[in-house]
Amino acid sequence: MAIIAVSNQKGGVGKTTTTVNLAGFLAKQGRRTLAVDLDAHGSLTAYFGYDVETIEKNVYRLFTGATQTKDLISSTQIPLLDILASSSALVTLDKHLGAQPGKGLVLRDALTALKQRYDYIIVDCPPVLGILMVNALAACDRLVVPVQTEVMALRGLDRMMHTLQMVKQSLRREVNTLIVPTMYDRRTRAGVEALQQLRSRYGALVWDGVIPEDTYLREASKNHLPVAYMAEKSKGALAYALLVEHIRNIEAIQ
Amino acid sequence: MAIIAVSNQKGGVGKTTTTVNLAGFLAKQGRRTLAVDLDAHGSLTAYFGYDVETIEKNVYRLFTGATQTKDLISSTQIPLLDILASSSALVTLDKHLGAQPGKGLVLRDALTALKQRYDYIIVDCPPVLGILMVNALAACDRLVVPVQTEVMALRGLDRMMHTLQMVKQSLRREVNTLIVPTMYDRRTRAGVEALQQLRSRYGALVWDGVIPEDTYLREASKNHLPVAYMAEKSKGALAYALLVEHIRNIEAIQ
Ligand SMILES: Nc1ncnc2c1ncn2[C@@H]1O[C@H](COP(=O)(O)OP(=O)(O)OP(=O)(O)O)[C@@H](O)[C@H]1O
Ligand SMILES: Nc1ncnc2c1ncn2[C@@H]1O[C@H](COP(=O)(O)OP(=O)(O)OP(=O)(O)O)[C@@H](O)[C@H]1O
Ligand SMILES: [Mg+2]
Ligand SMILES: [Mg+2]
């Protein structure tokens, strides 16, 4: 089993879109896949038609109770793809649990218990570096960082990578990181320049493909479907299929 | 003096862009203006060329020390526009202070002390509903909620407004809310439909203008300038000028 966390402190860069579409292709390729929503705002949970205000089976209960992880999982309309939904109650987590020791390993222990049930687990993170981010970094085998290909987002990436380094040191573990350029528009000079800067600054940490700007990715979210199940030949879908292939290759080696 | 908070739990919808450009036009129109950065990721602080890892004068110190607010303010290259910068230390605020009573009024008290110095204060919020959001709601006279004109973002708005209602009730105060449609592209059916849905669902809460998708707004951020000072005749600039006019009108009445 491989656990992939998808995170960036910058908002609106394609974290949820990347989580849904990695999970969608993995399931379509016959892999047993679980998508986990750590964002109190619940974009991933809403994507699959659930309501974060009311859903009883949710990830918050991992932190507060005696429920087994397997009893908190919901199905989706996609075969081989399940979801561990979010809850709006997650907003209070930092306040209530942040200062208690040992709360950083709750997710790791919960997902380890699912080792026999899933081939891949993809974790969607909120745009904030709090206790949930610590949990995601402690639990994952690999961190995928979507970065919008424009200058402001690159400035933010430097800050994010700096903070990540500190969190990794406090967890005393190294985490493989893959930076994924998103929303790329090769017709704009700003986009082309931003991608060049990203590659020259972060080198081999950056995936050698790009996720292009593609309205089919928005259409798919409107239809509550991963793009693999709605517009498989679109440029957005083809790019995510290549990213999945890359991740399956690098995960297979380890 | 009027205090405007700019917030939405959804990431990447134009909160920082709206803060910068409201503040930019107000300053250009001769109003003494302060922009406040409550986001630990520090997009607003970086926009004006400061570094959130190192800047000593920052908003975190309001919560931890005896420094007077006026001594934490920095200038920008724009006349009549100052900034109260962020700090990466803000990520720990919820953990350290979230459970202590009375920490929700720190910002309100700090900004009230500036009543004689500024005509407008614009507060940029992070994409999360924690102790900083409570502070922003307690301090502001009006809440501006930028909403991307696309379906996923509308779903998120319903959840956000629901949570806001709960926070307002716990603060026992009503806060005027203005929803601002952003990144609008009238050439796409999805954009036009989303705007229609937004207006039919939220009626008079929605500003009757729109902020269009405009690459000059990204260019301006690359040049560390509000769009009023870089591309004043662009459609993005004209839209923000209209929004400022609307806000000055509704604030003047009260
Ligand atoms: N490659 C793309 N092309 C076009 N639209 C995209 C692309 N990727 C994401 N989007 C759209 O951009 C918006 C933001 O994407 P998404 O919600 O996945 O970002 P996020 O990083 O998860 O945001 P948040 O910080 O709120 O969690 C959504 O409306 C999504 O449909
Ligand atoms: N109307 C617009 N037209 C074109 N680009 C825009 C527009 N508004 C914002 N942008 C761009 O979209 C990106 C996201 O905007 P911004 O950073 O202001 O959003 P935010 O809500 O503050 O994000 P976060 O949730 O990370 O705080 C930035 O690159 C910005 O330049
Ligand atoms: Mg998301
Ligand atoms: Mg912002």
What features would you describe in this structure?
Two copies of one chain form a homodimer. With 254 residues, chain A is an alpha/beta fold. Chain A is 42% helix and 14% strand. Chain A has ten helices and seven strands. The first copy, chain A, has helices at 15-28, 43-47, 60-64, 93-97, 106-112, 131-139, 151-171, 189-202, 215-222, 235-253; strands spanning 2-6, 33-37, 74-75, 81-84, 120-124, 142-148, 176-182. In chain A, strand 6, helix 7 (151-171) and strand 7 form a beta-alpha-beta unit. The N and C termini of chain A lie close together (11 Å). The mean pLDDT of chain A is 94.
Secondary structure blueprint with pairings:
The structure is a homodimer of 254-residue chains.
Chain A: E1 2-6, H1 15-28, E2 33-37, H2 43-47, H3 60-64, E3 74-75, E4 81-84, H4 93-97, H5 106-112, E5 120-124, H6 131-139, E6 142-148, H7 151-171, E7 176-182, H8 189-202, H9 215-222, H10 235-253
Parallel strand pairs in A: 1-5, 1-6, 2-4, 2-5, 6-7
Antiparallel strand pairs in A: 3-4
Helix pairs in contact in A: 1-10, 5-6
The structure holds adenosine-5'-triphosphate (2 copies) and magnesium ion (2 copies).
